[in-house]
Amino acid sequence: MNKLQLYKLLRKNINLSYKRSPAFEQNRWAKVLIGFGGVMFVLYLILYGILIGMAADGEAGTLITTMIIILPIDFLLRFIFQTTPAMMVKPYILLPISRYSAIECFLISSHLSGFNFLWLGLFIPFAIIVVFAGAPFLQVLFVVLLAQLLIILNSQIYLFFRTLVNRNVLWIIPGLLLYAIPFIPSLLTWNRKTFDHTLDFIHTFNTAWWLLPLVLLALCGLFMVNRHLQFKYVYEEISKQKEKQLKKVSQFAFFNRFGIIGEYLKIELKSNLRNKTMKQRCIMSLVLVIVFSSLIAYSNIYDNPMMTNFWCLYCFSIYGMTALIKIMGQEGNYISLLMTQRENILSLLKAKYWFYCVVLIIPFVIMLPAVFTGKFTLLMLFGYMFLVAGFIHFIIFQLAVYNKQTIPLQLKVTGKGNFENGIQIVIEIAALIVPGMIVGLGYLTVGLTATYIFMCVLGIAFIVTYPLWLRNIYNRMMKRRYENIEGFLATKP
């Protein structure tokens, strides 16, 4: 069997695995929303392609100059929507084929993924406009081809850093620094003219013929590096190499006073400190809060009232949203044990609610510098903290009724993504949109001060009544317990 035949067979197996998956119904819902989001993204790209083409004034190389902005955006979007291809390789490692053949096929598949070609929605309108503006056709064709190869190269850079970030979240720092290189001189001098000089320097070489073989050489080099890394880390996970022994086991005796809820609080805390999946999520959320809080406090980038309110809400809700959106997923690894005693799940939900309410103290403290610089007010921070603790948690905890896919606690490369069904998607969209609507309507009608007071009252109302709505969630979970247990067991790694 040659590489082309193997590639076709693997693509066929991937499609069949999706159809045979217990989560096929959820996958179809996710595909519909992803398709809709892709269409909207392409429409935005067409608009920006037209604007950049009109501003280029017939200079085809302008597209390559703008890639210093397009590539970082593409890199960050991939972290949100794309995973490493090695997650699909696990079933093929022990087959009688070359050990790298499956990895190579999935890497080639990542080159040809539809995500890489979405940017043509920007490149093609730009090309049409600059051609009609007088740019040579062959030069425009060269520039578009080079820009598309840069996007494919960017996909390999993403795979490299995503694989390393899965091992250690600190690898995100060199990844971001790589894309910050064109902006570093202007940041060091705090002079806009320095950035203009950087753009002029890039513009001088943006249509040079040697850029094409240089990009192709870099693409081949990164392909070989990713080929090695993907196999190395997948093999480590499937071979279950021994983890380092813990030198000290923390007892967290303080939680003993809370009885069974205290025991679940210990589990939640230890899971966030030890398990790879949850620990990385915790660190990434903390880094994002620090970055955006610093930008707001010490720069004038987000001086607009609506933007500062948006980022304040985001900083408070980011960790809870990323963790609770898969609520009960980690417990799916031992769901049968949790079902052995009456109201075990209710105590677990209470422990989770207490834990994620207390965690809100961390962003509150981190954002205090923004209060000292006059960007935020204490009432604003209290308003968003209570709104997240009460109202947003009330919405997100509804997912506990419908989530039924187990999340691996230690697997980072071979773990499969968990898609959502229709009800879950509606709940997630409501958690994202409704708080923003409350703030927006309050800002336009009664002013921000009255809005913050209303947010405090609304949040405290849900906090005080949390035993009632958690009991309601628990009762609805028990009505679906057999369906959910079946889902958890079917998706258990």
Please describe what this structure looks like.
- The two termini are 30 Å apart.
- The model is unreliable at 412-419 (pLDDT under 50).
- The chain has helices at 3-20, 24-56, 62-81, 101-111, 114-117, 120-132, 137-167, 172-180, 184-189, 192-205, 211-238, 259-274, 276-298, 305-324, 335-338, 344-358, 361-366, 368-372, 378-396, 399-402, 422-445, 448-464, 466-479, 481-490.
- It is built from 24 helices and no strands.
- The chain has 493 residues and is mainly alpha-helical.
- It is globular.
Outline of the structure:
The protein has 493 residues and is mainly α. It is 74% helix and 0% strand. The protein contains 24 helices and no strands.
Overall mean confidence score, pLDDT = 78
Total count of helical runs of at least 4 residues: 24
The H-and-E topology, N to C, reads as: HHHHHHHHHHHHHHHHHHHHHHHH
Quaternary structure type = single chain
Distance between the termini: 30 Å
Counting helices, strands and paired strands, the structural category is mainly alpha
Overall spatial form:
globular
Beta percentage is under 5%
User: Unreliable segments (pLDDT under 50, ≥5 consecutive)?
Assistant: 412-419
Number of strands: 0
Q: Biggest β-sheet: count, sense, barrel?
A: none
C-alpha-based Rg, rounded: 25 Å
Helix content: over 70%
